[in-house]
């Protein structure tokens, strides 16, 4: 049994005029279907759960969004499919962790690249530098 995650978003969020925040309601369903894609799983879930015939299309430019005509309300729903979750740990990390990407230019920042490649724990090293910087600022004030 797998769990698939999705969100019902507004037209403004779909268009990109309003961002989908991390706090936006996330739905999870356990499924026994064997679809290769999470979108297929969500479509099965909607058809089985509501026992209705949903009319839908998948946006070619945003492959993770289903545009569906809700047969009960006769309104269009935008369903953003997140994907499959495999474990409680993944769900916990998705909710409680932030990742940051720092690009480095090979020619102009080779010293930074060499230093980061020389340490055993890059994440711990960077976090310690930031904490030391915070402590210096706190001592000033």
What is the number of strand segments? Answer: 5
For the largest beta sheet, what order do the strands appear in spatially? 2-1-5-4-3
Largest sheet: 5 strands, antiparallel
DSSP summary: helix tally: 5
The shape, in one word, is: elongated
> What is the structural class?
alpha+beta
Order of helices and strands: EHEHEEEHHH
Number of domains: 2
Distance between the termini: 55 Å
Q: Report low-confidence residues grouped into runs of 5 or more.
A: none
Instruction: Tell me the radius of gyration.
Output: 22 Å
Description:
There is one protein chain. The chain has 141 residues and is of the alpha+beta class. The chain has two domains: 2-96, no CATH class; 110-140, no CATH class. 39% of the residues lie in helices and 23% in strands. The protein has five helices and five strands; from the N terminus they run βαβαβββααα. It has a five-stranded antiparallel β-sheet with strand order 2-1-5-4-3. A hairpin with a 6-residue loop joins β4 and β5 (76-85). It is elongated and about 60 Å long. 8% of the residues are buried.
Furnish the topology, listing elements before pairings.
Blueprint: E1 2-9, H1 11-15, E2 27-31, H2 38-50, E3 55-58, E4 65-69, E5 76-85, H3 88-96, H4 110-118, H5 122-140
Antiparallel strand pairs: 1-2, 1-5, 3-4, 4-5
Give a short summary of the structure.
This protein is α+β, with helices and mostly antiparallel strands and 141 residues long. It is 39% helix and 23% strand. The chain is built from 5 helices and 5 strands.
């Amino acid at each position: 049994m797998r769990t698939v995650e999705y969100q019902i978003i507004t037209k403004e969020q779909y268009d990109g005029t309003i961002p989908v925040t991390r706090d936006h309601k996330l739905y999870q369903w356990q499924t026994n279907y064997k679809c290769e894609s999470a979108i297929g799983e969500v479509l099965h879930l909607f058809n089985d759960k509501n026992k209705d015939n949903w009319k839908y299309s998948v946006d070619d430019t945003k492959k993770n969004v289903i545009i569906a005509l809700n047969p009960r309300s006769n309104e269009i729903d935008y369903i953003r499919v997140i994907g499959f979750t495999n474990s409680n740990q993944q769900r916990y990390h998705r909710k409680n962790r932030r990742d940051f990407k720092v690009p480095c230019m090979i020619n102009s920042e080779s010293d930074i690249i060499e230093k980061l490649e020389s340490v055993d724990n890059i994440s711990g090293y960077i976090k310690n530098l930031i904490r030391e910087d915070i402590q210096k600022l706190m001592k000033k004030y």
